[in-house]
Design a protein that fits this description.
Blueprint (H helix, E strand, L loop, with lengths): L4 E4 L4 E5 L3 H14 L5 E4 L3 E5 L3 H8 L13 E6 L6 H8 L3 H8 L3 E7 L6 E4 L14 E4 L3 E5 L2 E4 L4 E3 L2 E5 L20 E6 L2
Parallel strand pairs: 5-13
Antiparallel strand pairs: 1-2, 2-4, 3-4, 6-7, 6-13, 8-11, 9-10, 9-12
GO molecular function, one term: hydrolase activity
InterPro entries: CT_C_D (IPR003833), Cyclophilin-like_dom_sf (IPR029000), PxpB (IPR010016)
Protein name: Sensor histidine kinase inhibitor, KipI family
Amino acid sequence: MAVVNLVPVGPRACLAEVEDAVAAASLATWARAQGVAAVEIVPAAATVLFDGVDVASLGGSLSSWSPSSDPVPGPLVRVPVTYAGPDLETVAAHWGCSADEVVRAHTSWEFRAVFSGFAPGFSYLSGLPAERSVPRLDSPRARVAPGSVALADTWCGIYPTASPGGWLVLGTTDVVLWDVDRPQPALLAPGTRVRFEAAG
């Protein structure tokens, strides 16, 4: 069964446990497109929260989903990046290539926001090939600048505000990740496709 388990978390909410973050994003996107009756559908690392649902009937509503279901394409956001981050050479060493080749690779892939967390506007972006996985810093920085584009494991992310962090920083962008005056405050909501471009 595609949905591993359904766990009620109240009279009108339920967690659907799935294999991983990509499956969670797929289920959430599919459920929205299918019109599954819920006030909110929130994907995470290996679960999807269905809030404001009929818990008893949710299993039937999700029965036709599978991880192989064609994803519904999300909007595409292009993010210009100044690739001069403090860890660019470190990533190049991990990948066995030059810094310029890191930039070419990073701008060649399409990423997808699969879930949000850590800070308002921070989205975990999938799309980094498994063989390009990189470790976090041994000791996190006390302050990472807002707009920092960074990698950790097989994730890519952009720090929306200044904060501590242990990801490897490739560069910076001026895009605003979180703005409460927008109809949708998060620029990179789950399902959004992301392409990075070298600025200037």
